[in-house]
Automatic annotation (TrEMBL):
Protein name: Uncharacterized protein
Record-linked Pfam families: DUF892 (PF05974)
CDD domains: YciF
Record-linked InterPro entries: DUF892_YciF-like, Ferritin-like, Ferritin-like_SF, YciF
Amino acid sequence: MDKTGSNPKFTNRSPLQEEPALLELFAQSLRELYWAENHLVKTLPKMALASSSRLAGAIEEHLEETKMQVSRLEEIFHITNQKMLAQKCEAMECLTKEGEILIESTDPGTATRDVAVIMASQKVEHHEIACYGTLAQLAKTLGLEETAALLEQSLEEEKAADVKLTEIAENDVNYEATMES
């Protein structure tokens, strides 16, 4: 039972034959998420230059998870018999550009810059959590259980990364930033 008190409904029909509109929506979202994760593989190394070793380590660890998430998405393309194509994710592009501007507005090597890195990273994490969560639910609705399980694995990694960033901010970086000036 979900939090609203109702049970989610799933189809027993073949999604490839009887749910073409939903499957196309799923495929489009999958292509955008694939683009977004590949974009992050290129973007995250810049953020790993944080001055906090805990933050840099967390970002490096998440970079490796992101590479695994790309592999999972490729597996999903295979499972669902779709071409492995990336479709530009405008939201991710905007979030990463906004993050770069935010980070560049701070002094290098400072805890304040690390705060900016965390802020930018968490905006990205929250977007990914939304994407993986909605795709996993749609996969379940379409009866794509194996696909849903792969998406949920990535969803849990994104949630854990967000929690880790919050802990680093609360227990380390934010306090250090207050001591600068």
